[in-house]
Amino acid sequence: MSAQPSSSGRRGGRGRGGRGRGGSVNGSRDTGDFSDVQFTVGQQFGPAEIFSAHKHVLGLRSAVFATMFDGSAAADRKNYVDIPDVAPVAFANMLRFLYTDTVDLRTDNVDATMMCADKYEVPLLVEKCWELMSAHLAVDNCLFILENCCIETIVQRCLEFIDKFADNVLASDGVAALGKGTLAKILQRDTLSVKEQNVYLAAEKWALNECTVRKLEPSGAHRRQVLEEVLYLVRFPLMSYAQLAEGPGKSGLLLESEMRDLYQYKFSATKPPLAFSTESRPGHANRIDEPIAGPAYPVAAIIFDHQEKVFVKLTMDAETWVPGEIIGMRERMSELGH
């Protein structure tokens, strides 16, 4: 059964308040005096509500309404408009703003009001909605605001919030829905208070979702393909060996040559050039929770090639064989009499 419109004297009736020369424009909105358009709003949300308004006022404040009411074809000059996909409270907030430049925004209606204001191109109301949302930043809304808001002061407020709570924000489901540019804007920041492993996990989460969106097999090659330059914003050298081995070492995100260079960088006095930044993020004291590698560093498997070069795996399920000299294995083998 379809929702039946309900109306009130404030929105749809013709009460006495506001009549005559002494009435205000807003009063005529409330009473419906001299209104020439009627909106039936919110059928998708329950019982619809009816709002009366004045085309001239709406057309002056909204390009969408101007087009709706000032079209050249008679059919475009509507007197009755159905808006089933906007919540009545949001439409009421927008009408009040169009008439008075004031609005009753609360945290429980700001999302709906912003979507309504955006739909009808009322940028000043959109900005007020962003201001309220950014004043109540949380892990579950900061990414949405950062992705969609173009007001620089609010964007900066979001980034500073993310800096402070980066571990929790990057672990949230909202990461997967970010645009690549927004993801890059976050991961490139020196000021993130974050464990680098969580930066890597966020990049993996985003790449897996992007492969799904593009209908790609989530192989290591495809995940690299969708990440492109964002991959090099992860500071893999700041991760511990165990994190590297259990993360990109298993997932196939990094090339074998990249993993080998990372292991050599961490365990050898001779540091190879890396494609990844080795600079710590000042926003977080990155700790390497592993012992310094040396001849006694434990290994899980050892092989010798035909030239008697030593290669090792530091865990049995690691996919990459590491040259033994990186962790001093030749010296260790000598100590053992080999």
Please render the helix and strand layout as text.
Layout (H helix, E strand, L loop, with lengths): L24 H7 L5 E5 L7 E5 L1 H7 L1 H7 L10 E4 L4 H13 L9 H10 L3 H12 L7 H7 L3 H13 L1 H5 L9 H8 L8 H18 L6 H8 L13 H6 L1 H4 L4 H12 L33 E4 L5 E4 L8 E2 L5 H7 L3
Parallel strand pairs: 1-3
Antiparallel strand pairs: 1-2, 4-5, 5-6
Helix pairs in contact: 2-3, 4-5, 5-6, 7-8, 11-12
Structure, explained:
By secondary structure, this protein is mainly α. It folds into three domains: 1-136, Potassium Channel Kv1.1, Chain A; 138-288, no CATH class; 291-338, no CATH class. It has 16 helices and six strands. The protein has helices at residues 25-31, 55-61, 63-69, 88-100, 110-119, 123-134, 142-148, 152-164, 166-170, 180-187, 196-213, 220-227, 241-246, 248-251, 256-267, 329-335, and strands at 37-41, 49-53, 80-83, 301-304, 310-313, 322-323. The strands form two sheets. It has a three-stranded mixed sheet with strand order 2-1-3. A three-stranded antiparallel sheet has the order 4-5-6. It is elongated. Residues 1-24, 286-308 and 326-338 have low confidence and may be disordered.
Tally of DSSP β-strands: 6
Mean pLDDT: 80
Strand ordering within the main sheet: 2-1-3
Integer tally of domains: 3
- Low-confidence stretches are 1-24, 286-308, 326-338
- Rg, rounded, reads 30 Å
Gross geometry: elongated
Assembly state of the chains shown: single chain
Proportion of residues in β-strands: 5-15%
What share of the residues lie within helices? 40-55%
Most strands sheet: 3 strands, mixed
Class based on secondary structure composition and strand pairing = mainly alpha
Q: Please provide the ordered H/E string of secondary-structure elements.
A: HEEHHEHHHHHHHHHHHHEEEH
* Head-to-tail CA distance between termini: 85 Å
Q: What is the overall number of helices?
A: 16
